[in-house]
Amino acid sequence: MLGLPSTTEVGRRIPKEAFYGRLKVSAALRQSFIDDVERFTVANSIKTSTTGIPDGERVHEVLVVEVALKARRVPEEVLALVAQANPHKLLFACTFNDEVRLAVMLKGIAVGEWRSVEDASLTLKATSMDGVWDSIASQVAYGDTGSETATVDERFAADARLKALREELAKTEARGRKERQLARKNALFDQVQELKRQIAAIEEGR
Hints:
- The chain has seven helices and seven strands; from the N terminus they run βααβαβαββββααα.
- The protein is an alpha+beta fold.
- α6 runs antiparallel to α7.
């Protein structure tokens, strides 16, 4: 799967009940496991002993988990629960018919685009297992093999911060347009300028 070395292949099926049976989940989430997922299979284990890539400081193993779907929809809450309950880094390969959509858990679930199973492949940066995970997660979340200046977690956190700042900016600008009291209008203007400064600083550092 995904053009990974044959030495990483596992092919071990995991019953869905192993997740929603022993974890505390809502009725809706339990139903999502039942209705949305056909099966879970550990397809590949990427680690030093299966690839020869040096161990990392933060990451020691990346498991590729195939999630066979019952419909062309990725159940993100299900993936998040599975990722949070597992000590390893997980790459989800969500398959439906002859298509696959990759997903990884960072500060939240990042989901790539649908691709043909035959065309889907990954590049492993062979510096260390830390680099392997950063490269894999970057390919899913950003379509590249990573940044030289920031980890994928740092990039994802910056994006989340940017989104929050932009939403706050839009609300503050709207309040400023409606405000009639001059002192308050000026204060809102100052807030807008500060938000724009913070946004520009994050964008410049990306």
